[in-house]
Description:
It is built from 11 helices and 15 strands.
Amino acid sequence: MTVFSEWxxxxxxxxxxxxxxxxxxxxxxxxxxxxxxxxxxxxLLGTGTPLPSVDRFGPGTLIEANxxxxxxxxxxxxxxxxxxxxxxxxxxKNVFITHLHSDHIVGFPDLWLTGWLPANFxxxxxxxxxxxxxxxxxxxxxxxxxxxWDIEAxxxxxxxxxxxxLIKTNTLSEGIIYDKDGVQVIAFLVDHGDFIDNAFGFRFNxxxxxxxxxxxTKYSENLIKNSKDVDVLIHxxxxxxxxxxxxxxxxxxxxxxxxxxxxxxKLFSIVGPELAIYSHIALILTDPSIPPANFSDLxxxxxxxxxxxxxxxxxNMIIEIGEKVIVKAKTK
Length: 332
């Protein structure tokens, strides 16, 4: 009996020890989550191109910091993605446009007008403010003219038109363009081709953390210069089936305006971000007889020159920056 009693005691003691170790492990995980602080939250609203895809809407990146929202580019479906993420459109008051290609701005009229409506998805109380390259003021005035009937009809019975429907415009130049409440936005020129001399990238700084958004660009030394010590680098990419590049002049012209995966990998290696992430992902399609490039090729082609942390962005993917950079699966 004594032998069996001792063995039973030893077994019981081991079980107790395992339970204690498991409890300590759970406590450590909980404490680490409690201690984590998020300073910047990035939501990839749209990671696509002019291709009318329901899976990848037009370019748009939403950054939340210090209780405020900052939208970079406003492509097709931006408003739908914002509302899908349970954010009132009326809370988006600061919009930054990299360049005036239609796929980067076609969602702006929707955001501007729908965010002004009195329904619970709107209710903007102040004019929307937009920063963009030369031509942004002309675009804004044109929109206000185009939608003047709608604005006047919805303002019927009021003594004056609500100032929240106004658009305040700022024409970009290189340097600090926004510096308020600890949030800083820097604009810098990128290279979107010889005949497009007014395309910009942006750097977003807050609490010692930073995000760079490339905009549309070829391999850019100026982007590298402005990405020093960046936490997250969101970069465009374009690629095609090698046979298409050989045969199609149009495909070669499109590729010449953008960055290949191999070029992006070289750039990432120089910058050394905590996280590099692709957005505005262009699969060049000009000849239906040649199969499109495969998304599965994107990472291997980048890995020829870059071994750091890398993600292929998806619509509604969330990146949180604090003590560490966390990538969360896209919201449902």
